[in-house]
Write a structure and sequence with these properties.
By secondary structure, the chain is an alpha+beta fold. It has ten helices and 13 strands. It folds into three domains: 80 residues, Alpha-Beta Plaits (2-Layer Sandwich); 78 residues, no CATH class; 146 residues, 3-Layer(aba) Sandwich (Aminopeptidase). 33% of the residues lie in helices and 29% in strands. Helix 3 runs antiparallel to helix 4 and helix 6 crosses helix 8. The longest helix has 16 residues. Pfam families: Acetyltransf_1.
């Protein structure tokens, strides 16, 4: 059984050796160690392996008898002994490539789940600042160290910078051709990538709810044109893809997430795309369809109304879910 133990020690030679000796006598095996300097003291974080049946109080008492102060013992899993730098880099990947929310990733990295602590004294709050000046707060029973704060702030700054201030390439020209909605294929990877590169940061955020890394990776573009459980739709005007959406079965719910290039917004293309998505969902046997967007995106609400749908609007974790019944929608086959 693994335990993460945090203890504060006076910054003097021999104090850590006393902790190690006490662990050895108690048959606690030290499997990892981090030292967080906080002059004139240091905070040591150790992961120890204890015999079955040990409790947090018993583990903490070993450290207290060896001179440790403010001891907190938390039961942890095997991933607790992973290299911290590797864990944070993996977290960046999860945000930028897999679309996880940065708050959830940081909570996992900082292990903010209610822990088993020997001397719970309340929550410590870490306040982080995004590039736009807004703040993100994370709380935990075990106090944060300055090093943890610096790591978390660096990670937030990194993912906040990704996709920010990306220069827009020249928008696609406003063709006179009639818009065409069709199913995307692997041949559309470059067109979908180019569409996203022409979109503003705000438009990308409304679609993905995270800062989107540009240029888009080929793997992500592939998922956008050939999703695992559903299909992708393109709005094409002339030779250019100016709109895109993914119709996907998530558990028992059909969802649709869409994006329209900035230069083509306000021209009814979003409404056209939503109608086709509803028809495709109906052809798959869906009885209702949920459109998902960021909470600040009012344009989708207008598009749903313009499409003639009667909708139920709900908010989930900062996003808006707009669910419409499909009983009166004509099915649209692939094409």
């Amino acid at each position: 059984m693994l335990w993460r133990v945090r203890t504060t020690l006076a910054d003097r030679p021999g104090n850590l050796a006393a902790i190690a000796a006490a662990c050895g006598q108690a048959r606690l095996n030290i499997v990892s160690l981090q030292v967080f300097p906080t002059t004139p003291q240091v905070t040591d974080e150790l992961v120890v392996s204890a015999p079955e049946g040990w409790t947090d109080v018993r583990v903490a008492e070993v450290f207290e008898r060896a001179g440790g102060e403010r001891v907190a013992a938390t039961r942890v899993g095997d991933d607790a002994i992973s290299d911290p730098a590797t864990r944070y880099l993996r977290g960046v990947h999860e945000v930028l490539e897999e679309g996880r929310d940065i708050t959830d990733v940081l909570r996992d990295l900082l292990e903010t789940e209610p822990p088993d602590v020997a001397d719970y004294t309340g929550h410590d709050v870490m306040v982080l600042t995004r590039r736009d000046g807004s703040t993100l707060q994370i709380s935990r029973a075990v106090p944060f160290t300055a090093v943890e704060h610096e790591r978390a702030q660096a990670m937030l700054s990194l993912v906040s910078d990704a996709g920010i201030d990306v220069p827009l390439i020249t928008p696609s020209p406003l063709h006179d051709a009639a818009p065409l909605v069709r199913q995307a294929t692997l041949a559309d990877i470059e067109a979908v990538t180019a569409l996203h590169e022409r979109c503003s940061v705000d438009t990308l955020y409304d679609r993905y709810q995270v800062p989107l890394k540009m240029p888009m990776t080929t793997r992500m573009a592939r998922r956008l044109v050939v999703p695992d459980r559903g299909c992708a739709l393109l709005v094409q005007v002339g030779p250019d893809a100016v709109g895109h959406g993914v119709l996907e079965l998530d558990a028992d719910t059909w969802t649709f997430r869409s994006i329209i290039e900035d230069a083509w917004q306000g021209q009814g293309l979003g409404t056209l795309l939503l109608r086709h998505a509803a028809g495709r969902a109906r052809s798959e046997g869906a009885e209702r369809l949920t459109f998902v967007t960021a909470g600040s995106n009012d344009s989708l609400l207008r598009a749903v109304g313009d499409a003639g749908f009667v909708a139920r609007v709900e908010r989930h974790d900062g996003n808006v879910h707009i669910t419409v019944p499909l009983r009166d929608v004509r099915a649209v086959e692939a094409g």
